[in-house]
């Protein structure tokens, strides 16, 4: 839990229904009929400290083997766009979605080659996730913060590598075990198992 959880300015009531932002993926932004169990689990946690961000990664419906594989290793979960979407939905219920958003932003930054774009994206990441004034600030130790502050004088696509690793480790050790025991993961596993046995 972060210190932001109790802030009245960052708690937003969720809308009465999920945004149907796309029609090609099964992920948390859709209201797909096969996803009814996860819809009910989502409604059980209607408040989020971040504004709902409907733009999930585009992905296809995962196979039973893929969903089972997420329980074998955190790396498998994080390498799968579908896995990241489901894990992000779970993090939202724990008021820690910013960890995944920061990790994704760092991954995107690493793909940039244009110096001007790198500068812009690095500053946006800093303002959104590193600044102590941000409602989406991630939890980093002072050593990593000092490294980032030095690197921000001349940002590169790897400015946040130490911070990204720290947040990845935090999600792995802290959130991932709870995710595997969550209703979100268990109902998804049930749904994909049922779908594959019916087909």
UniProtKB/TrEMBL annotation:
<keyword id="KW-0325">Glycoprotein</keyword>
<dbReference type="Pfam" id="PF00615">
    <property type="entry name" value="RGS"/>
</dbReference>
<comment type="function">
    <text>Inhibits signal transduction by increasing the GTPase activity of G protein alpha subunits thereby driving them into their inactive GDP-bound form. Binds selectively to G(z)-alpha and G(alpha)-i2 subunits, accelerates their GTPase activity and regulates their signaling activities. The G(z)-alpha activity is inhibited by the phosphorylation and palmitoylation of the G-protein. Negatively regulates mu-opioid receptor-mediated activation of the G-proteins.</text>
</comment>
<dbReference type="GO" id="GO:0005634">
    <property type="term" value="C:nucleus"/>
</dbReference>
<dbReference type="GO" id="GO:0007186">
    <property type="term" value="P:G protein-coupled receptor signaling pathway"/>
</dbReference>
<keyword id="KW-0539">Nucleus</keyword>
<dbReference type="GO" id="GO:0016020">
    <property type="term" value="C:membrane"/>
</dbReference>
<dbReference type="InterPro" id="IPR016137">
    <property type="entry name" value="RGS"/>
</dbReference>
<keyword id="KW-0449">Lipoprotein</keyword>
<keyword id="KW-0832">Ubl conjugation</keyword>
<keyword id="KW-0963">Cytoplasm</keyword>
<comment type="subunit">
    <text>Forms a complex with G(alpha)z/i2 subunits and mu-opioid receptors; the formation of this complex results in mu-opioid receptor desensitization. Interacts with OPRM1.</text>
</comment>
<keyword id="KW-0564">Palmitate</keyword>
<keyword id="KW-0472">Membrane</keyword>
<keyword id="KW-0734">Signal transduction inhibitor</keyword>
<feature type="domain" description="RGS">
    <location>
        <begin position="73"/>
        <end position="189"/>
    </location>
</feature>
<dbReference type="GO" id="GO:0005737">
    <property type="term" value="C:cytoplasm"/>
</dbReference>
<dbReference type="GO" id="GO:0009968">
    <property type="term" value="P:negative regulation of signal transduction"/>
</dbReference>
<protein>
    <recommendedName>
        <fullName>Regulator of G-protein signaling 20</fullName>
    </recommendedName>
</protein>
<dbReference type="InterPro" id="IPR024066">
    <property type="entry name" value="RGS_subdom1/3"/>
</dbReference>
<dbReference type="InterPro" id="IPR036305">
    <property type="entry name" value="RGS_sf"/>
</dbReference>
<dbReference type="InterPro" id="IPR044926">
    <property type="entry name" value="RGS_subdomain_2"/>
</dbReference>
